[in-house]
Amino acid sequence: MRIRTPKKNKSDILKTFLQSETDLTSKINEAIFNRFFDILEKNISDHVSIELRNFGVFKSKFMKSRYGSDPRNKKKIYIPSKWKVTFKASENINKKLNEKI
After folding, report:
1. Domain spans, the chain
2. 49-101, superfamily in CATH?
3. 30-46: burial string, b at 16+ Cβ within 10 Å, e else
4. Confidence of residue 1 (pLDDT cuts 50, 70, 90)
């Protein structure tokens, strides 16, 4: 059985952030929010590991080129090398995620 989880995108998270933060104007809050994601994106693309305490760690990982198989016809295909982003959740996040089970 597959459990469907709700989805939120960046604008949904921004709306939640703007509702909870009342000291600054919404334009300033939006600029701070967008700047945070810009810095996060820049550091990940520069292959810098980012640790957010009590949240998790983002890392970029190099994947070597390899051969795989096409699941439709079982033919061998070449998969080129590439960088990918990994995320390891903190213990706190994992505890909160699993306490509802």
Report:
1. 10-46, 49-101
2. IHF-like DNA-binding proteins (4.10.520.10)
3. eeebeeeeeeeeeebee
4. low
Please determine, for residue 59, whether its predicted confidence score (pLDDT) is greater than 90. yes
Condensed to tens digits (0 to 9), the pLDDT of residues 26-41 reads 788 888 888 989 999 9
For the chain, the DSSP string reads -PPP-----HHHHHHHHHHH--SS-HHHHHHHHHHHHHHHHHHHHTT--EEETTTEEEEEEEE--EEEE-TTT--EEEE--EEEEEEEE-HHHHHHHHTT-
Q: What tokens does 52 get?
A: 């957010």
Exposed, middle or buried: residue 58 (CB in 10 Å: 0-12, 13-18, 19+)? middle
Is residue 22 predicted with pLDDT exceeding 80? no
- Which amino acid is located at 11 in the chain? S
Q: Name which of 54, 50, 55, 52 is nearest 85 in CA terms.
A: 50
Indicate the pTM of the whole model.
Answer: 0.71
